């Protein structure tokens, strides 16, 4: 099977849906790049090249560059979705949500409910997130908890190239507004990805490792970290289940609760801040629904309650690590059931 | 432009419907039967009807928090609207939206909007759909003078011009953004802003249906022809407060009565069509009587309708979840 | 020192890089013969019994129960009792893990044209000169189902493992979905590969396909092996067939797959994920529905080849797990003595996975007998 990067997998998913459905269009800042400039067209294909090649294949009617004007073009994507298109808009870095959030959380998210179930808004908003690029406080955040908080939005956090392709195709075919979080550090990660189209349903967690002793729930880039930790811990005789929820909204709570009922121990790993986060949300879920299954306290491994720092020396300790995950699992596994 | 008798009667009926609807909501709100925030459009009827009477179901509009008039002008059912305002199950939105969120997407009414400046970006999207699918549709964004100062509105001016979208931006300037005068809060001018973004702008007497109609006709034709957006700066006045319950202490003594006496769009319309012998008073009176009956029925229907139940709370969040 | 024989972690399939030693089946000091199962090893795919490649006394278990070792790592030492512990220590100390070049022993992938559509197959042992073996998986399976067989069977003869239409990497564009179409696809691969005669091995629905092959192209058939075969009885467990088609969620796929094997613990996370990935591919749902509707509708089998099997002069071997929950092994009853039947106790619907070593040995024995008679 051909190996593809996360970047290629997303590109391939968008291109195949554009071929399948003429209502699918792409818009965003420099999604082609070079518009109106003297140099070559499709100069960038997105700031990190994810949409490269779409312009030559689909033309300017379907691959629209925008002014740097997130309120206007994210809102336009929402309006186009409400009137019959299936736009895939790019909010370059999720940190920029601050200048257009109204169009997402007050407009797109609420149309269906406010209008009594009569609106359909099939917009996909792609956005980059996550630390590791030394991009500092306004280009590195993991803001999916903020979107997860809003009823009416679906929030997707793919952890690998295979996952990204299937989830992107599902996102484009989905009739609800979808926020699709792409971790910039994952763009060059490669794995086997089928050439054919396929969809991965939302709200269905992936179980990437199956074990008996401890359950780890991890999101996005942290899934790979959790897998590494699980593989290393297995050598030490600790058997770990790793759950990748894939989507934070909807959330597959059943898979998490089933696993905790078997292991009795839970570690949640999240690159986002600790407060009002997915880690807090899942800890709440398990405390409420599976309290009596627990053999040890729930542990969360998250970034600290600080902005993302710039200096590599600081950013490296800001982001959760395999070592921290292992230490948390080992500490839990050592606890003797009461 | 010559208008047919039927067309003029339809327009008058729409304007009267807006007026009677709003006057009645004002009365019923005072009795405590209507919950929440209500912003009335009475006084501004010529704007909504002068524009929307030229639109059809290909065309989209996005409204404001003061949206009843736009809804009625775009063809929303007043009985369902009244139920919605009462928070009833049979309302346009099942009682989940209320006054600020009445919509009818099938009719191209993209919703009243509780966020000032929320509509213009959406209307760029509706225009993009029309342009991409080559429906020939145009999209009209209504904002108030308050909304004209929002970044979303100004960004939309830019995007619509950069993408050459079939949009008409309508600034309904009733002189007040909530309780703040537009004369104070708007720097430069609406037309200067239009010029700054490279689109035609027209100052319009919003009390005169025919003036609105002609200005809108030019803008809509330009949009339909693929020549890009235009801006209409429509000067008008609201007969009620920013919201129901507003004591309007910021307005001049006698200001509203003066507008009602001298600048009532309905009276001006009636005078013009009767003087030109296009319609007679008897016919117009009959239209008014019909509208009053209809609104009475709408209120009775709203009062009699069921409230939503607990089961309705959790539905309609997603198509599928 | 030459009396010391190392036993190393096997490599089952291209994806395997390490295995976990689940249990030792022979104690230290116990006698082993080549082919005896000496340990259970768990991979990401499945847990399997490992057959000793050597005979002698199992002098030392190097890898302990629960430990993970990479492919090629030393698992145990077989040596006569005359060899001293010091000599064994020295051997272990100087042992170097050899990782086999994957290209040398691994299968290569090929593509054949089938009425303008693509079929994929794997070829292992391409340089061998024995009569080729063609492996046909069952409903919902693919060429990787023969993970534990392809290396053993290709020691002396080329082995071709085919992805049927609607399966694996082959076209998902199914026409009628009947056995004729599937047998034509097999014939297309046989032609593409330039095979004049082969041993055809089919599992479950794949067995019915090879019986159809026998009916339509007897000249191409050296012998037939039906593994938990469709095509000899009236029924199939519809809870499995319909359940497999309907299963979307992980736990539904898991419980569906657990019906296949006698020991449900054998269904690994990777097997479940593999099936989920397959089922998500565009066209698969329709393809498997079409095939099931034509071949296994509502728990019925639409084709019986009992008469053909009785009439043919080709050697026929049937392998059946006694705990098969999908196609009841009792369906072999009443077949005449000219058809060889192997019944495996404690084995479910997947003898080639669940009892891979026995399966491989018995097939190799059968092929050798057939080839001896042909010569």
Which properties best describe this structure?
heterotrimer, A: 338 residues, alpha/beta, Rossmann fold, 2 domains, 7-stranded mixed sheet, 5-stranded mixed sheet, 12 helices, 14 strands, 19% strand, C: 375 residues, OB fold (Dihydrolipoamide Acetyltransferase, E2P), 8-stranded mixed sheet, 4-stranded antiparallel sheet, globular
Structure notes:
The complex is a heterotrimer of chains A (338), B (321) and C (375). By secondary structure, chain A is α/β, with parallel strands linked by helices. In chain A, 36% of the residues lie in helices and 19% in strands. In chain A, strand 2, helix 2 and strand 3 (63-65) form a beta-alpha-beta unit. The longest helix of chain A has 15 residues, at 6-20. Chain B is of the alpha/beta class. Chain B has a single domain, classed as Thiamin diphosphate (ThDP)-binding fold, Pyr/PP domains (Rossmann fold), CATH 3.40.50.970. Chain B is 46% helix and 10% strand. The model of chain B has no long low-confidence stretch (mean pLDDT 97). Chain C has two domains: 5-102, RNA polymerase II/Efflux pump adaptor protein, barrel-sandwich hybrid domain (OB fold (Dihydrolipoamide Acetyltransferase, E2P), Beta Barrel), CATH 2.40.50.100; 107-374, Rossmann fold. Chain C contains twelve helices and 16 strands. The two termini of chain C are 41 Å apart. Mean pLDDT of chain C is 91; it is low at 101-105. Chains in contact: A-B, A-C. At the A-B interface, helix 3, helix 4 and helix 5 of A face helix 5 and helix 6 of B.
């Amino acid at each position: 099977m051909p190996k593809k990067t996360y970047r290629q997998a997303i590109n391939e998913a968008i291109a195949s849906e554009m071929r399948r459905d003429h209502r699918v269009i792409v818009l965003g800042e420099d999604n082609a790049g070079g518009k109106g400039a003297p140099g070559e067209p499709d100069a960038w294909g997105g700031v990190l090249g994810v949409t490269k090649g779409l312009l030559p294949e689909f033309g300017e009617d379907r691959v629209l560059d925008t002014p740097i004007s997130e309120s206007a073009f994210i809102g336009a994507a929402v309006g186009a979705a409400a009137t019959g298109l299936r736009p895939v808009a790019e909010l370059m870095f999720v940190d920029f949500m601050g200048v257009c959030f109204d169009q997402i959380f007050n407009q797109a998210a609420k149309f269906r409910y406010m209008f009594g179930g009569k609106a359909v808004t099939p917009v996909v908003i792609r956005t980059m997130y996550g630390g590791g690029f030394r991009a500092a406080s306004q280009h590195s955040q993991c803001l999916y908890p903020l979107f997860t908080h809003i009823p009416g939005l679906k929030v997707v956090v793919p952890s690998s190239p295979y996952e990204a392709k299937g989830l992107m195709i599902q996102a484009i075919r989905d009739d609800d507004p979808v926020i699709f979080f792409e971790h910039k550090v994952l763009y060059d990660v490669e794995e086997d990805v089928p050439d054919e189209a396929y969809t991965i349903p939302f709200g269905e967690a992936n179980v990437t490792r199956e074990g008996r002793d401890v359950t780890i729930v991890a999101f996005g880039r942290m899934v790979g970290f959790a897998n590494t930790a699980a593989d290393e811990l297995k050598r030490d005789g600790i058997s770990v289940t790793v759950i990748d929820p894939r989507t934070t909204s909807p959330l597959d709570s059943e898979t998490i609760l089933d696993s905790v009922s078997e292991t009795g121990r839970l570690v949640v790993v999240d690159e986002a801040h600790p407060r009002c986060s997915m880690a807090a949300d899942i800890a709440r879920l398990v405390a409420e629904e599976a309290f009596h299954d627990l053999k040890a306290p729930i542990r969360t491994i998250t970034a600290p309650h600080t902005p993302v720092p710039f200096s590599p020396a600081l950013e490296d300790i800001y982001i959760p690590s395999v070592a921290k995950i292992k230490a948390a699992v080992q500490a839990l596994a050592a606890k003797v059931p009461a | 432009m010559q208008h047919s008798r039927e067309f003029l009667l339809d327009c008058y009926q729409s304007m009267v419907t807006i007026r009677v609807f709003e006057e009645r909501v004002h009365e019923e709100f005072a009795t405590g039967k209507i919950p929440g925030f209500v912003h009335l459009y009475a006084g501004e009827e010529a704007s909504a009807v002068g524009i929307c009477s030229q639109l059809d179901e290909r065309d989209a509009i996005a409204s404001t928090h003061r949206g009843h008039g736009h809804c009625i002008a775009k063809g929303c059912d007043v009985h369902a609207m009244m139920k919605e305002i009462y928070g009833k199950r049979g309302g346009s939105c099942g009682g989940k939206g209320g006054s600020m969120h009445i919509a009818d997407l099938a009719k191209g009414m993209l919703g009243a909007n509780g966020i000032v400046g929320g509509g213009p970006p959406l209307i760029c999207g509706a225009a993009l759909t029309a342009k991409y699918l080559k429906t020939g549709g145009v999209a009209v964004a209504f904002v108030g003078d308050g909304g004209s100062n929002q970044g979303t509105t100004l960004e939309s001016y830019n995007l619509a011009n950069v993408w050459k979208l079939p949009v008409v931006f309508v600034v309904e300037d009733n002189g007040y953004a909530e309780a703040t005068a537009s004369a104070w809060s708007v720097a430069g001018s609406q037309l200067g802003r239009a010029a700054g973004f490279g689109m035609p702008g027209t100052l319009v007497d919003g009390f005169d249906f025919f003036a609105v109609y002609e200005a809108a006709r030019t803008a809509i034709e330009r949009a339909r022809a693929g020549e890009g957006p235009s801006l209409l700066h429509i000067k008008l006045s609201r007969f009620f407060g920013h919201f129901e319950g507003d004591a309007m202490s910021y307005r001049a003594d006698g200001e509203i009565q003066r507008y009602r006496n001298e600048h009532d769009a309905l009276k001006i319309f009636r005078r013009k069509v009767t003087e030109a012998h296009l319609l007679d008073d008897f016919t117009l009176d009959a239209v008014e009587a019909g509208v009053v009956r209809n609104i009475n029925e709408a209120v009775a229907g709203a009062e009699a309708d069921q409230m939503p139940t607990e089961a309705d709370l959790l539905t309609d969040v997603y198509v599928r979840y | 020192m030459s009396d010391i024989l190392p036993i190393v972690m096997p490599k089952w399939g291209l994806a395997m890089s390490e295995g976990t030693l689940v249990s030792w089946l022979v104690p230290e000091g116990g006698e082993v013969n080549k082919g005896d199962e000496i340990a259970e090893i768990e991979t990401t795919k499945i847990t399997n019994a490992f057959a000793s490649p050597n005979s002698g006394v199992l002098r030392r278990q190097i890898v302990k129960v629960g430990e993970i070792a990479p492919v090629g790592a030393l698992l145990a030492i077989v040596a006569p009792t005359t060899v001293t512990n010091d000599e064994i220590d020295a051997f272990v100390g100087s042992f170097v893990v050899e990782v086999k070049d994957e290209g040398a022993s691994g299968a290569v992938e090929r593509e054949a044209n089938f009425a303008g559509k693509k079929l994929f197959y794997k070829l292992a042992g391409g340089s061998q000169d024995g009569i080729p073996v063609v492996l046909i998986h069952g409903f919902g399976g693919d060429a990787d189902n023969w993970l534990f067989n392809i290396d053993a069977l290709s020691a002396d003869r080329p082995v071709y493992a085919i992805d049927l239409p609607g399966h694996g990497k082959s076209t998902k564009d199914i026409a009628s979905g009947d056995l004729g179409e599937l047998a034509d696809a097999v014939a297309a691969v046989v032609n593409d590969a330039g095979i004049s005669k082969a041993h055809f091995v089919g599992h479950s629905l794949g067995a019915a396909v090879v019986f159809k092959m026998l009916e339509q192209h007897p000249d191409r058939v050296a012998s037939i092996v039906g593994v938990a075969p469709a095509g000899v009885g009236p029924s199939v467990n519809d809870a499995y067939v319909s359940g497999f088609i309907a299963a979307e969620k992980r736990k539904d796929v898991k419980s569906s797959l657990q019906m296949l094997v006698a020991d449900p613990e054998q269904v690994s996370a990777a097997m479940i994920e593999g099936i989920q990935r397959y089922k998500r591919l565009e066209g698969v749902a329709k393809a498997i529905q079409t095939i099931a509707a034509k071949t296994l509708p509502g728990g019925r089998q639409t084709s019986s080849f009992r008469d053909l099997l009785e009439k043919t002069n080709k050697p026929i071997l049937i392998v059946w797990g006694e705990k098969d929950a999908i196609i009841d092994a009792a369906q072999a009853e009443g077949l005449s003595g000219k058809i060889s039947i192997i019944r495996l106790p404690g084995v479910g619907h997947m003898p080639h996975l669940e009892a891979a070593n026995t399966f491989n040995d018995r097939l190799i024995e059968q092929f050798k007998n057939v080839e001896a008679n042909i010569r």
